[in-house]
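INFO  loader      accepted 1 record
INFO  loader      residues=385
INFO  predictor   begin
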Amino acid sequence: MRNTEDTLEAARSEAYFRARLQQVTDLLAELVSIDSPSGDGAALGRAAVWLAGKLEACGASVEEIGGGVPHLRAVVPGRQPELKPLLLVGHFDTVWPLGEATRRPPSIEGGRMTGPGVYDMKAGLALGIWVLDALQAQGIRPRRPVVFFMNADEELGSPGSRPLIEREARAAEAALILEPSTAPDMIRLRRKGTGIFEVRITGRAAHAGADPSAGVSAISELARQIMVLDSLNDPATGTTVNVGTVKGGTRRNVVAAEAEALIDLRFVEPAAGDRAEKAIFSLAPQLKGARVEVQGGINRPAMAPGPETLELYDRAVKIAGELGFELREELGGGASDGNFTSATGCPTLCGLGGVGGGAHALDEHIVVEWLPRKAALLMQLLLRS
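INFO  predictor   done
INFO  writer      dumping tokens
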């Protein structure tokens, strides 16, 4: 009997959202039309004001926290306020510069909505607001309080919001991360951890023609270090070390005195990340007279599921089945703020936002048809947790 009631309730949720699809596309178009590039405090402030107004209209109490950029913390009361809250997490900063929303305003064509930040990840924020609005409109209060944390620096690695997110996660029953997914049946329980490093080489300048032996080429030393870094790649464990940028030297006829490279590390298992980090910091000069300096480190721990996350995943799979689709787990190569919530021990599901693709690219889009079903999934997770 319970299964039948759950299935009917899930179907009613989706029907509610599908009948109001225009509401969320209008909401999302408004949000995408507000430029919010990372690091631009004024632009992020305008987006934060808009978001706070929408959240307050859903019955949430909203406060701005953090310095420099405006992170938002919204709370919707539950029927049992003494229970640990459910945590929704999303970011409203994007990689797109000021004016991009004017150059490429949001539009819908062929069932896809396009626009800067629509996929990563303003659709997720719009879904969260849409669900909270639906709960209020129908007079439904979840059993647990809901905390919706929106940060404004995720695209920079969440340097300021990380401790705030971790604090919320430690106090939460579970975290639902509203990052997007590339397929409607995909959800993330695992994401790779990340490391960011800078390798700086100091050599000695000399005239490349008149006295090359007096010099020590920082570029030649860097080339040798790149070979060492490349050897750290381990497809079997999912560890990747990518030399993303290199630069060095001053002129064609001068032995380069300086060179540097930016390194990206990705890993599945924490131990593999620790090994790679140690190896990168152990880089030693191979040319006499050269000096190697490494800065950086692991900035996001790997996201890995514990037993409680697997239980939460099973609940999501059941709800998805009631909504008529299968849900599957897929490892994420990119990181999210779910890496932080998961590392605190908080059960975490990621990828509950819009369905689409083209993150950080001109073809960024979401599939409009899937918005009601993803909203219904999120609503039922809030109501059954």
